[in-house]
């Protein structure tokens, strides 16, 4: 899944309405596994566009990449609450938040998040894997 995020970030423009930041640089840093530097770059974007769901999703990903799951949660929530466009990012955000809650032992919240993701995206195979009825 990590590679899929890189490919989409590199080949697709961020959603309409997303602040015009250098996502090519973010993608390059991730591919080079420079996660701390990536987080520093995205943090500057967060300060400029704190309500942008795409930027929040990227910051959540940065924290998760560094094993900072607790710090990732509010960014995932901020990304999901207003809704991410396009749908593949919505799916990844639900998966990211749900799996982060699981890693933190917050199982009820994980179940709630993954269930909400499945309601929105019933055919998403990754969400189905993490939450079976």
Automatic annotation (TrEMBL):
TPR repeats lie at residues 91-124. The keyword Transmembrane helix does not apply. It comes from the Bacteria. SUPFAM superfamilies: TPR-like. Pfam families: TPR_5 (PF12688). The keyword Lipoprotein does not apply. InterPro entries: TPR-like_helical_dom_sf (IPR011990), TPR_5 (IPR041656), TPR_rpt (IPR019734). Residues 55-120 form the Tetratrico peptide repeat group domain. Keywords: TPR repeat. PROSITE patterns: TPR. Signal peptide: none annotated. This is Tetratrico peptide repeat group 5 domain-containing protein. The lineage of its organism: Bacteria, Bacillati, Bacillota, Bacilli, Bacillales.
